[in-house]
Amino acid sequence: MNTKMRYGILGLLALVALYTGTWAYFAPEAWHENFPGFGLSWLPQLGPYNEHLAKDTGAMFLALAVLTLIALRDVRNNRLVQITGAVWLVFNVLHFSYHVQHLAMYGTRDQVLNAVTLSALVLLSALLLVPLGPARRGDAR
């Protein structure tokens, strides 16, 4: 693992958290009806709209964004980045586990997108557990 990879992974996770968290917290009904966006809608199939649940989800994602942005500012801190990765990994493994058990309610395209997207988030989270390699001469970390 090097710092460029860490920047990329943490940056992507921060964007996911900010995108989802901001939308879910500040426009919960629109989030429920239209998430993940881009012409897709994955939440109504899972049950009726619940403002409390949507806003709590948004708050959780915003909290993940804060943790991730703190780690992004100190990517050389193995402990901080690994803690951030562990927190994301717990969430993403449980999130993935739930959704793969409920794919039948979606069409093939949405099944594939759910499985690919959520498994990629698990992988990215796990990669944050890898410590930085030893500094090499001329290494732009």
Automatic annotation (TrEMBL):
The chain crosses the membrane at residues 57-73, 80-100, 112-132. It comes from the Bacteria. Keywords: Membrane, Transmembrane, Transmembrane helix. This is Uncharacterized protein. It comes from Streptomyces kunmingensis.
